[in-house]
Batch of 2 targets.
Target 1
Amino acid sequence: MRTAEQPAGDGGDKPWGEVTPEAARRLLVAAVEAFAERGYHATTTRDIAGRAGMSPAALYIHYKTKEELLHRISRIGHDRALALLTAAETGGGSASERLAEAVSAFVRWHAERHTTARVVQYELDALAPEHRVEIVKLRRESDAVVRRILADGVRDGEFDVPDLTGTTLAVLSLCIDVARWFNSRGHRTPDEVGALYADLVLRMVAAPRGGDPDRRPGQK
Amino acid sequence: MRTAEQPAGDGGDKPWGEVTPEAARRLLVAAVEAFAERGYHATTTRDIAGRAGMSPAALYIHYKTKEELLHRISRIGHDRALALLTAAETGGGSASERLAEAVSAFVRWHAERHTTARVVQYELDALAPEHRVEIVKLRRESDAVVRRILADGVRDGEFDVPDLTGTTLAVLSLCIDVARWFNSRGHRTPDEVGALYADLVLRMVAAPRGGDPDRRPGQK
DNA sequence: GTCTATACGATGATAGAC
DNA sequence: GTCTATCATCGTATAGAC
């Protein structure tokens, strides 16, 4: 299913391959680092240009404004995140298998590319209004993917999900927050975190053994 | 157990009651709002003073630097969060009951005081090194509270937690991320989110019915 | 396409009047 | 304790040389 290089990285093998020319890519990578470290508003165009080894003016040859840089980063990152989830949904298998794949892939990306993911997830408010509506639409699609997998599992008797909207939100939220803490504590690999989280999420939604979903102890 | 007003709010009944004199409190409340909206580094002392209805110079009568404001906010917020968790731990009941109370109280705080919580949870890196080590110590104590409750549940046969460290991290992470999304989507109350999350977390750690913890299907 | 130079307003923090 | 005025620096973005 994957024929080209995967984009939207921040330090992996061939990240941001779709951003050309090379000077524009260097600036964008520098912007990701700076935005992640200090936040969009506090990052100066001088800092971005400096990290890319250029003069402040060089930035404006490739990007009209600082916000255009953020928009490019956010768009590519959200495209990538949605692609991961969609691949899991359409990859076949039971609802449990699709959910496990969606969660582990989504978490792996937030861990591996946590610098990018921080910008993508925490700087939405800094986008221009027009760009924000575009990005919010992509986020709603990601939400819908997870929601459909959960609904499928309920239909097939694999899952017990009393609050579909809230649980969808919680699952995505749990995964997204990996971008905040990853690499600031322990020594886990993205793969390990992805596997752990897939297990935890399956436990959150699993139907009680034996099948009858009405038999669960009412917690709420 | 609670004899005084609870502090660390950001718009509730009597929040930040322990900050005196009143001018210092007004400045601190203004700083919370500004830091949450734009981030610490991008917030100007003029903005803070302006929101508090004062001149830029007035800020420096009550706080030596902008960073001292952040430190005060972070310290009070972390004290409050730890107090909530500790109260749940020492409040009695089974491990399941203590965990449910810890999660729902912690989530309620992150939802109700999401403006404060955003500053508290997302601006750690902006603290001066000396202040950051102090705050990190408090965070480790919060982590230890949740870890102990989980370990108690495992000991008592209520919980099945193959990865204690990772699950502790995931539980806290899930709760903390409420500060990011709350009020940016639906129409849930803090109480509702707290109850939902307590249920989801209990499902994550619950031992399989019947008791024998070795009987779980190996997911990892 | 990249540079140096620069416009012009905003920045954290201080001095000294009241 | 609060103000106005100020310092020295840094902010985004542009102009024009090469």
Target 2
Amino acid sequence: MTGPARVCEHMFMSGEGTILHADLDAFYASVEQRDDPRLRGRPVIVGSGVVLAASYEAKACGVQTAMGGRSARRLCPQAIVVEPRMSAYTAASRAVFEVFKQTTPMVEGLSIDEAFLDVGGLRRISGTPTEIAVRLRSDVLERVGLPITVGVARTKFLAKVASGVAKPDGLLVVPPDGELAFLHPLPVERLWGVGPVTANKLRGRGIATVGHVAQLGEAALVSMLGQASGRHLHALAHNHDPRRVQVGRRRGSIGSQRALGRTPTSAKHASGASGRTPDDIDAVLAGLVDRVTRRMRAAGRVGRTVVLRLRFDDFSRATRSHTLPWSTAHTQTILDAARGLMTAAMPMIERQGLTLVGVAVGNLDNDDRGVQPELPFDRYSGGDLDSALDAVRDRFGSSAVTRAVLLGRDQGLSVPLLPD
DNA sequence: TCTGGGGTCCTAGGACCC
DNA sequence: TCTGGGGTCCTAGGACCC
């Protein structure tokens, strides 16, 4: 969108890295600009409460992702604020990932708008990694209408750093013999896994660049940041990153959350510090569990650990979790567990005022185990056979349920079910 | 209108088992 | 009577990423 693609001059014909990190620029905002010509070339902010995405024109005013909407508008009064259209972004993401997969089967998605691609072994068919990267960018632009930045390097980490440096609408190739020269002058915040807390710890000790980190020695970093972070940072600063591109990674949890807004002061007096009745909270909880379990069933996943996430008036947080004896995607089972956690947390909620509720199910498994469930009939009854069968389908996925055995007081009845 | 919604990974203590 | 070490699972919290 802004400016020409930058291609590093000293590219190599051989020994070149084969990992691409492809990252859509200001993704949500770019989709809005693509779909509404009036937004092109103008500062666009997606999300009114919190900035979900800002176009580069808005970023030029200092608007940043995750910033409060009010301060964003103060920085950039001329910005056009649009509400997010998640379904449009999901569709755009699918289209972009199609382009990725036609480029190479070795695609590892990281999020809705970025992925690693390993293009090693494609040289004879598709050309050098750099040529593939150039074509990938033009394919995404032509076929989906979105600008995308690509970093090319020998390792995942370096490819990601390269795309970050090349943004927006850029291409940056890090040659194998120029890796440390590229890496060491960069600020520590560029290291993957260094956020505000770690950056402050490092800067507090006068460590500002990746090169400084590299001089430090692993033991010093471990004592400063802990075992895992210390080792991780030491390795990255020396450009050690043996991770391969992994195809078909499945996520480990599925969750949903909802912000409730601040507690109205008047309501505090009416119904305690939470400002909401337990019934209000329970309705939100039931809605979240319903959404989560639907998504689990649609994805063919079952899970065992139910996590309740809470946030309070002062923005402090708490989580409570419970692990079930078996994996499930059954709405009522997970709702029961979430209600148990919520009940136990009610005193805390009364004291601190609830501003966000979230439910996540972790410990996910694929729902492919040929389970033979038994459900206590009377729990789902009203004595009604159909609703009991619905409960079984709901819990285990309707296409997976092919036969139900109903055990009565003194008889068994086997009912074949057609998957739908 | 102070601060969304979706995730990952690590740490640390306690229970429990061998 | 006193004394190990190793491993796994669960829970809670926190940093970080997009």
